[in-house]
Amino acid sequence: ELKVEQNPLFLSMQEGKNYTIYCNYSTTSDRLYWYRQDPGKSLESLFVLLSNGAVKQEGRLMASLDTKARLSTLHITAAVHDLSATYFCAVGRNNNDMRFGAGTRLTVKP
Amino acid sequence: GAVVSQHPSWVICKSGTSVKIECRSLDFQATTMFWYRQFPKQSLMLMATSNEGSKATYEQGVEKDKFLINHASLTLSTLTVTSAHPEDSSFYICSARDIAWTGELFFGEGSRLTVL
Fold it and tell me: In this predicted structure, what is the pLDDT of residue B1?
């Protein structure tokens, strides 16, 4: 059974600092997703990673995928308050749905 | 990007009543839609996979007689919570896969159900 482990679960950081969120998964998959969720809202798609070595960047966020290590990272550069949210990674399953990690609740403090 | 619309956004109902939530793909055809449930401060848990024109596939532990799913067209799936109880209160989110599968799933805005 596919298991997705995300860490850390909670993260409090100062504005301007860098940090990385990790997503490990247990079985082979070629689809890895990162989403952002604000309180009371649905998911906002950040990145879709479909191949080994894929790296995508959008603003202060950069995601990468290593399918051999079954690891994806979401790197935050020079954090700002607006990035405060919960971030989920999700791994694609054979039936085309996805299994979600537990989420990382990020708080960026001024 | 593709748009998935859920309705209603939130609903409050009395215990014992049934509630229907709609999930529509507005600008694409979706052969497959997924229904998730999210409790406060938790992750999303897949409840069932909805396939157009066929029966839904339910995840282990999800009561198919309680959570009725109908996917009658390529743009609409419905989730009906029958005889709702307070423990069914949750945030329900649907996602849809484009018939031209690109690897991405598109999520609805979510529907918050509160059962009194």
Answer: 66
